[in-house]
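Fold sample X.
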Amino acid sequence: MSGPAKGAHPFGSWRCQQCHHSFSMESAATQDEAEEGGQPLGESWLNLTASVTGAGKQKNPVPSESFHAQMEEKRIIKELACEHTMPLYPLCEGCTAQVMAELAAARDQARKDCEMYETQFALLSQREQEEDSNSREQIEEDLRQAEEEEQALIEKSHALELERTALRKKMTELEQNAVLLEQMQKCYWREYNDLQLQLRSSDRDSLRRKIDNVTMQLEALNKTNVINDAFYISHSEIYGTINGFRLGSVPSQPVEWEEINAAWGQTALLLQTLVSCWDFTFPLYRVAPMGSFSRIIKRDDDKCVWDLYCQSDMGFGRLFGYGSFDKGMAAFLECVRALQDHVRSVDTSFSPPYRIVDHKVEEFSVKLQFNTYERWTKALKYMLTNIKWLVASSLSRRS
């Protein structure tokens, strides 16, 4: 606040705290009091006149102490009303009117707010009463349901308690049974061990007898020659036979070529079986057993195939050879000789009764060319005899 100059009259020159214009105190204050109904200055608003010039002469001066007391009261009321938002006193007349208008607007707004608050308060009070009424009914309903649930839970708890008691009783019985079973199990194993000790000696004797029986059966099986049973070689007068088929023919006791061809097929199959048994491969030929139409094939030339069968007696053809049939029989005899040499290299005790050289067994040829049926039949008989020795040697190899 800007006060009067030093030594000046109390109604000297002042500066407005809002518009910063200089003004002077006038005697109009007394007139204003009269217009307001003769009220004292401390109970009415102060009228201030703006002055462009410096302080003028004062009319109807007011005592200094009374004026300052009134100004202090105005200032305190103004600060309380405006919450320190308005500028400090003194103010000129224009600024004072502006402040009064703002205060009036704030008062009207405060009245409207107060009315609105009262209306809202009434609504809230009514709503609260309604909610209290509804909540009381809801609380009573919830309480009733809670009491029903409580009663149901109490009954359930009682049932569970009875069930727990029954389970405890049953568990006690099961524990007693478990102890009894454990004792019985121990007794059982004790008796079992005693029985095993008693039977051990008799079981040992029985097992030894079983081992002896199995050993005897094994020895009998080892002595059994399956090849000999499958290919039975024998002789019938001047003929050598295999599985009952005669191999050869003589004019006094002629044999059909179908039987001779079947005998050759059985002999070829037997030789191939013996080769498999000895895990041996013929170096020059390969035997192809095909029943009554068996053949022998040259190993290094698959197109060179010779027959081990004949369709009929060729008569005059004997003078010039049987061709494929003679070559096939000679090649077959060479295969028998090769297998004999292999067996002899493995088993030095092996010694067949008849010697094979080229296409002859001893001095008898297996070819029909320039040969007689008697000598040819005897050569085939000796060949079957040597093959039978090979069958016997296969049994010793397996043993």
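Fold sample Y, listed below.
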Amino acid sequence: MSTAKWLKKFGRPLSRGNNMLRRAFSLAIEDVNEYPNKADIDWDNLKFEYRATDSFRVHTWTTATGWGVGESIEGGTLPITPLCPALHYGQQAFEGLKAYETATGDINIFHPNDANAARMEASCDRMCMPHIPTDLFNEAMIAAVQENRRWVPPHGKGCMYIRPFIIGTSTQLGLAPASEYKFVVCVMPVGTYYSGSGNGLNALVMSDFDRAATRGTGAVKVGGNYGADLLPNSICKERGYDTCLYVDSPTQSFIEEFSVANFAAITDSGAYVTPKSTSVLPSITNTTLMQLARDSGLEVEQRPVAVSELDTLKEVAAIGTAVVVNPIGSITMGDKTVEFDYPATLVALKNELVKIQTGDRPDPRNWLLYVP
């Protein structure tokens, strides 16, 4: 809270003549939390990074009991055996969602038609893990947000990122599905994923690497897909680019997705186009943007998108929960660079979506999950 705001609210306690006391008073009240029901942090400068909060939620599944009652754990540490399938064989899956505070102080989780719960179910099927019932998934998220309510950013200051994940935690040496699992929900306040990208990100097609193989795990949200991106993403940044763009593994002729986000574009004809591939993760954000595009009268094309079409695209953006819509300024493949216009159409769709997420626009399709 600034000195002026404090004085306006509480009055002027010191005389004009005592400059030393006035200076000390001013310095002291600068430390007063402007949002008394919130954690005392710099809400104006949030980054997309880990921040310790009060607690996280855990449910345990065993072959004998199924899913147990959830518990709240403080301290930020989850004890697990060093010989579990999650650590050695990658038997895990995760999701990403966001909660927003409205102008009236309500809190909503953006979870359109339980889509993240459904996507995690698909990931669990692929990784031989038990389904997490949608009711349990939602209840665990709501409980985690409620217990960390003071960490939800004030309206217009950011959002609370929600990370649900499931890991195989039984002690075993051989390759086999676990006999015990933990479903965990962590939450923390975040800002934007990319920063300093006002002119758009510059992407590099990484022809020497694949994000996911055909008939692999690319269409589900598991850690191995992201681990495969670490080296090419590092190389990409060493070469002065902001993000990677991957193409199909067999022919390298079709666009798949960016490092951590779907690919979406506006064509010369004004259509919203996004790749359709069995090795691309179906983005919840992309799905909702496609619906908003249809609502606005745009033609929507979800189909294979050839690399050769890049010259016909007016706007390109990276789409996902963390980035929402991040403009792409250029894409380089080999010795050719294609530049794109500022994605005014895609950003307008993003703004409409954010208004729904933050409660500044009606939610006619019930995309929001209310946190009591």
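Sample Y note: Confidence is low (pLDDT under 50) at residues 1-17, 24-30.
Also: Residues 254 and 272 are 17 Å apart (CA to CA).
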